[in-house]
Write a structure and sequence with these properties.
By secondary structure, the protein is an alpha/beta fold. Helices cover 53% and strands 7% of the residues. The protein has a five-stranded parallel sheet with strand order 3-2-4-1-5, sandwiched between helices. Helix 5 packs across helix 7 and helix 11 packs across helix 12. The longest helix is centred in the last third of the chain and has 28 residues. It starts with 25 loop residues before the first strand and ends with a helix.
């Protein structure tokens, strides 16, 4: 790098662009993502950095700076105004500004005003993403926020797996309600609340003295499970129907868990209709011929109803909830009608 200071005027000529009195130069705003490991920059970014007459950064603690300097890039800590930056480009110089986390709004707004005024000849302006987020990158933000909350929040720092369990159940029910209501905004929010429960429990698990694990262990476990249980996607097996996929899944799961009964792994604490349907589904999938227990009363009637619904491909829990919602709407309509009659 030819320049080692910033005083609003050119110090030298760039290696690839001979200075001329009319060349307005070039300003490159180089942005990076804090979710990508520092130093992992795109090749165009490295080319811009190495070819610049001067590299500036307003934040002396920017995480990229040690890696840039290790690569031989001189970075000057400075926060020039838009006019100063334009003046410094005169004569064909190229200046690279390593953007801070806020994206340099003061500088970009100032450059926009200068360009819009039409009073001066502007240098070429380029926005160059040196690194960018891949899908799922915001999950890293959630992990970082959870770390801080766990450390600094008086309530969150005292929570345990048992203490949080009820919230997981509540959030799951709220998610189901959002799905049934068809509210997309509510669905997105409730998915976030469920995701928080996962990250929260994983953060608590890191502190266990005997068997700690992290969110990375949780994610690694489910990734390995999905790959192993989808041999028709990641392996050599073939599955052309949803039923064949389910067979693969259950067969692989039985081998993994070394289960001796199709009833193993079915949580008995789930709602009754869902439990009955799950048992019926396991029996049907396994090809077993098990007669429903004979008995009198509402319980046995519901069991038979749930088994029949499962055989017909109907979720009895969802069907009952839909019917209950219709009943709720009828109640509200009756209440509204009664209120109107009372006013009359």
């Amino acid at each position: 790098m030819n320049a080692t200071s910033f005083d609003g005027a050119p110090d030298a000529t760039g290696p690839d662009a001979p200075a001329t009195s009319t060349d307005p130069g070039r300003i490159v705003l180089l942005t990076t993502s804090h979710r990508v490991a520092p130093g992992l920059l795109s090749w165009p970014a490295w080319q811009a950095l190495r070819g610049a007459d001067q590299v500036l950064c307003a934040d002396g603690a920017h995480p990229q700076l040690p890696y840039l300097r290790e690569a031989g890039i001189t970075v000057d800590e400075a926060s020039p105004t838009a006019q100063e930056l334009v003046d410094a480009c005169a004569g064909g110089r190229t200046l690279v500004v390593v953007a801070t986390g806020e994206g340099e709004p003061r500088l970009t707004d100032g450059l926009a005003r200068l360009a819009g005024s039409g009073r001066i000849q502007m240098p070429d302006l380029e926005l160059l993403p040196a690194s960018y987020d891949l899908p799922g990158a915001r999950l890293l933000d959630l992990v970082q926020v959870m770390d801080r909350i766990r450390a600094e929040c008086p309530w969150s720092s005292q929570q345990t797996h048992k203490g949080l369990a009820k919230y997981g159940i509540e959030e799951a029910y709220e998610l189901v309600e959002a799905i049934e209501e068809g509210d997309r905004d509510e669905l997105r929010e409730e998915l976030g609340d469920v995701l928080l429960q996962v990250v929260f429990h994983a953060r608590i698990a890191e502190e266990d003295e005997d068997a700690p694990f992290s969110i990375d262990d949780v994610a690694g476990g489910i990734v390995a499970k999905l790959i192993h249980r989808h041999p028709h996607v990641f392996g050599d097996e073939t599955a052309t129907t949803p039923e064949e996929v389910k067979e693969h899944w259950l067969r692989t799961k039985a081998v993994e868990k070394r289960r001796t009964s199709v009833t193993e792994g079915i949580p008995l604490g789930q709602p009754g209709l869902a439990l009955a349907a799950k048992l019926a589904s396991r029996v049907r999938t396994a090809g077993l011929d098990v007669e429903l227990p004979r008995g009198e009363g509402v319980g046995y009637e519901l069991l038979r109803t749930a088994a029949r619904a499962e055989a017909e491909g109907v979720d009895p829990e969802a069907a009952l909830r839909a019917a209950a919602r219709a009943y709720r709407d009828a109640i509200r309509a009756a209440e509204g009608s009664s209120g109107a009659d009372a006013e009359d």
